[in-house]
């Protein structure tokens, strides 16, 4: 981890700080909780580590060991919270995530930063647009993608109090206002009975989706919980729309939720389009996260063009 990378991520620390505050409070209030780190964000937990030296564990730059230690804690009845950049939390130790939690039937709360390209200046090593898709290959994971730092607190409170397997994907950007944290889709704008279809905005994509679709007759729904996916809710929304066509805008790999939409609408004819990080040729550039958004069509202008091309046919 370079100093420049950590500085880049600290330019927008709202969700990261909300995570640190929520976990520090949980360590104070619940003796079952333990935090496992691999250097990243260690400075944010110095006070918590001084208060609870046996329950704040920094394994050094050993991500596989980080997951293994958390799995062992879970076997003893502890509730481990594991934190790092997404590529070091999900991709690098994926075998341990699969075995030490899933195969052993234990739970944990994994909290990732860095996301798709939040740490764009650090290069490809710190980018993980495929994190949610990769976890989607494993059974039993709940995945939350909050769109505002206030939502982070609510998500973590519920996740830490449980026993299941949870991944919380934090972002360096967010929406202007928090929305209710719910396993169900939240309707922000309802189209008419003759509307063109439904747009599902995931986490930090909401504000730009609302701006991009302001002149379209579509229903816009917000999802901060993406696994389990609210198939029943999407089915109901598509049933009320004039067309059962669905556009999903996700801040990670394009088409990650395509199979969920297909299952939700398997009883009717429909079209679907997924927007997200392009699955084509790797974008070999540093730039800013905003530059990457533009290249992948995830800025408001790109989403607006894709929505018009999809719905106005």
Plain-language structure description:
- The protein folds into two domains: 3-169, Thiamin diphosphate (ThDP)-binding fold, Pyr/PP domains (Rossmann fold, 3-Layer(aba) Sandwich); 186-311, Rossmann fold (3-Layer(aba) Sandwich).
- The protein has helices at 3-9, 14-29, 46-51, 63-75, 86-91, 94-103, 131-135, 149-161, 206-212, 231-240, 258-264, 289-295, 300-311; strands at 33-37, 56-58, 79-85, 108-113, 141-144, 165-169, 186-189, 198-202, 219-223, 225-227, 246-253, 272-277.
- Mean pLDDT is 94; it is low at 1-12.
- It contains 13 helices and twelve strands.
- A seven-stranded mixed beta sheet has the order 2-1-3-4-6-5-10, sandwiched between helices.
Please tell me what the overall shape is.
Answer: globular
| Global structural class | alpha/beta
Radius of gyration: 19 Å
Q: What is the number of independent domains?
A: 2
**Main sheet: which strands, in order across?**
2-1-3-4-6-5-10
Q: If you consult CATH, what is the topology of the largest domain?
A: Rossmann fold
**Element pattern in H and E:** HHEHEHEHHEHEHEEEHEEHEHEHH
Summarize the main sheet. Answer: 7 strands, mixed
CATH class group of the largest domain: Alpha Beta
The H-level CATH homologous superfamily of the largest domain, spelled out, is: Thiamin diphosphate (ThDP)-binding fold, Pyr/PP domains
Question: What's the total count of β strands?
Answer: 12
Topology readout:
Elements: H1 3-9, H2 14-29, E1 33-37, H3 46-51, E2 56-58, H4 63-75, E3 79-85, H5 86-91, H6 94-103, E4 108-113, H7 131-135, E5 141-144, H8 149-161, E6 165-169, E7 186-189, E8 198-202, H9 206-212, E9 219-223, E10 225-227, H10 231-240, E11 246-253, H11 258-264, E12 272-277, H12 289-295, H13 300-311
Helix pairs in contact: 2-8, 4-6, 9-13, 10-11
């Amino acid at each position: 981890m370079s100093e420049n990378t950590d500085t880049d991520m600290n330019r927008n620390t709202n969700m990261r700080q909300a995570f640190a505050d929520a976990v520090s409070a949980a360590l104070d209030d619940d003796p079952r909780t333990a935090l496992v780190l691999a250097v990243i964000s260690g400075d944010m937990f110095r006070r918590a580590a001084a208060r609870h030296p046996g329950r704040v564990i920094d394994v050094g730059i050993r991500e596989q060991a980080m997951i293994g230690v958390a799995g062992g804690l879970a076997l003893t009845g502890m509730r481990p919270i594991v934190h790092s950049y997404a590529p070091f939390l999900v991709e690098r130790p994926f075998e341990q995530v699969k075995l030490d939690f899933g195969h052993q039937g234990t739970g944990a709360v994994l909290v990732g930063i860095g996301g798709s390209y939040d740490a764009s200046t650090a290069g490809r090593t710190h980018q993980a647009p495929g994190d949610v898709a990769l976890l989607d290959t494993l059974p039993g994971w709940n995945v939350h993608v909050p769109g505002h730092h206030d939502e982070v607190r609510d998500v973590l409170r519920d996740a830490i109090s449980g026993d299941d397997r949870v991944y919380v994907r934090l972002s360096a950007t967010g929406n202007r206002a928090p929305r209710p944290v719910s396993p169900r889709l939240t309707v922000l704008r309802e189209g008419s009975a003759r509307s063109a279809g439904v747009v599902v905005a995931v986490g930090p994509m909401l504000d730009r989706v609302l701006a991009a679709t302001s002149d379209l007759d579509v229903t816009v729904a917000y999802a901060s919980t993406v696994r389990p996916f609210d198939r029943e809710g999407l089915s109901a929304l598509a049933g009320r729309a004039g067309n059962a066509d669905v556009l999903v805008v996700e801040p990670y790999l394009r088409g990650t939720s395509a199979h969920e939409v297909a299952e939700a609408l398997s009883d009717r004819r429909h079209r679907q389009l997924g927007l997200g990080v392009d699955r084509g040729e790797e974008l070999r550039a540093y730039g800013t996260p905003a530059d990457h958004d533009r290249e992948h069509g995830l800025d408001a202008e790109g989403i607006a063009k894709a929505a018009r091309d999809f719905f106005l046919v």
